[in-house]
Amino acid sequence: MTPAAQWRRVSRGNASHTSRGHYRPPGRQALAEQADRVFRELHGRAPEGVWSAPGRVNLIGEHTDYNDGFVMPFALPHRAAMAARRREDSTLTVATLGDNGQLQQAAPVALAELSPGHVTGWAAYPAGVAWVLRENGIDAPGADLVICGNVPTGAGLSSSHALECATALTLLGLLGVDLDGPGAPPRSEIARWIQRTENEFVGAPTGLLDQTASLCCVDGHVLFLDVRSGQREQISFDATEVGLEVLVIDTRAKHSHTESGYGDRRKGCQRAAELLGLSTLREVTPTGLGAALEQLPTELRPLVRHVVTENERVLSVAAKLRAGRVSEIGPELTASHTSLRVDYQISCLELDVAVDAALDAGALGSRMIGGGFGGSAIALVRADELAAAERAVTEAYAERSLAAPRLFTAAPSAGAGRDR
Ligand code: GLA
User: Fold this and answer.
1) Residue 419 catalytic?
2) Would you say the CB of residue 210 lies under 6 angstroms from ligand 1?
3) Which long-range contacts does 35-40 make (Cβ < 8 Å, 24+ apart)?
4) Domains in the chain, ordered, with CATH?
5) What one-character-per-residue DSSP string does 118-132 give?
């Protein structure tokens, strides 16, 4: 099925730039109002409601999720908002407002025909969520969906998961299910359903990090998640309170082997676990690491070393944050980057230039985040050195003739919910 059946230009929202040139997304309510307004313009009547879900930054814990390890994301203020109304004909229509102010409408899809491979392109995300709800015995209704989002796309900040999580809340919401009310499926279960959407419908072999972050994060906190047990802890994370900022550096790079590189690492970890006779690499303890490495072929050793040491770094950051020692987590962030670059081999020039420039400019710590081979990096910087760090990164890119990165600061924001 071809998406993009039709294009229209509509009034675009109210993102702004701060005096320092930072991109600042429109507030949650402004985005919801925009989705509401665009819905009315397109469908000539009011939506029944608006739901939204955020993108994420992962503070630490990279490529640990599919190894049953620890992760520590926080939700971005950037969100995907979805205005919706039920339809009587068991058909899903989806329209999304692009960055360029153009409305893109996917071809309508009959719910009964939904199956993996049937819908491609961006429309596969909402369609895949309707499919997975039905697979789990929830009679997802036909609906008109209108999406307005401001999570940077292709930046490794989980714009697609924001869209999927917003869709799940929307379709459940249209059925009268309030996620925070009695009888609702737990958010962690919805995260697993969305992982299935990604793995089976969209065809991306991703783990649980992104959708759990979008669904379960809360304002002002990082989410410390033990993927093996499912145990979650919200740990307060207020960098600004101690004079720090989390600078997000969207490198705007996406290298061609992003998908294959991710899949290869994942398979390598599975293979290593099998050879060790374990169900996942989570079972390898730091003290058992040396012995485990000796049993493995050379090419698999660095993968295992990254996973085991990264889990330890997450635990160390969790302990420091619980003790309010936010300004002391820099070394773990930088060590994570080194491990991802040297052992996991998923960094790239753009990420390394960003991290090195930020560190040279005085950042307390810096690392790539997400799947790798492009996307974004973060740097923990002193607020009064933020401008210098930004300048350093921008200049380092210019010196190497790399396209200018997009920079913004981010504080932990709210997870998915109903807006109107
Ligand atoms: C991507 C995937 C996640 C996770 C990260 C790496 O974002 O979607 O499941 O594996 O990469 O930590």
Assistant:
1) no
2) yes
3) 35/81, 35/82, 35/83, 35/146, 35/147, 35/148, 36/83, 36/420, 37/11, 38/10, 38/11, 38/83, 38/95, 38/97, 38/103, 38/146, 38/148, 39/83, 39/84, 39/85, 39/144, 39/146
4) 3-236+413-418 (3.30.230.10), 239-409 (3.30.70.890)
5) SS-GGGHHHHHHHHH
In the reported structure, the alpha carbon of residue 127 is separated from the centroid of ligand 1 by a whole-number distance in angstroms of 21
The tally of CA atoms less than 13 A away on the side-chain side of residue 285 is 2
Distance (Å) from CA 111 to ligand 1 centroid? 29
Contact criterion met (CB below 8 Å) for 350 and 402 = yes
**What's the 87 CA to ligand 1 centre distance in angstroms?**
35
Q: Is the CB of 36 under 6 A from ligand 1?
A: no
Neighbours of 245 (CB within 10 A): 21
d(CA 30, CA 16): 12
Contact 130, 181 (CB under 8 A): no
Rounded Cα gap, residues 171 and 375, in angstroms: 30
What pLDDT does residue 32 have? 98
Residue 145 Cα, ligand 1 centroid: separation in angstroms?
A: 27
Q: Which amino acid is at 117?
A: G
What is the tens place of the pLDDT at every residue in 310-353? 999 999 999 999 999 999 999 999 999 999 999 999 999 999 99
Ligand 1 atom with minimal separation from the 66 CA: 10
Q: Which of 65, 210, 250, 419 is catalytic?
A: 210
Task: For CA atoms 389, 391, 392, 396, give the dihedral sign.
Answer: positive
144 lines ligand 1 (CB under 6 A): no
pLDDT at 101: 87
Distance CA 106, CA 94 (A): 6
Task: Tell me the pLDDT tens digit for each residue of 49-101.
Answer: 999 999 999 999 999 999 999 999 999 999 999 999 999 999 999 999 987 88
User: Of all protein residues, whose CA lies closest to atom 7 belonging to ligand 1?
Assistant: 370
Q: How far apart, in Å, are the Cα atoms of 214 and each of 118, 187, 264, 393?
A: 26, 10, 26, 28
Calculated CA dihedral for residues 292, 73, 374, 52, nearest 10 degrees: 140
Atom of ligand 1 nearest to the CA of 266: 10
Residues 126/92, Cβ–Cβ less than 8 Å? yes
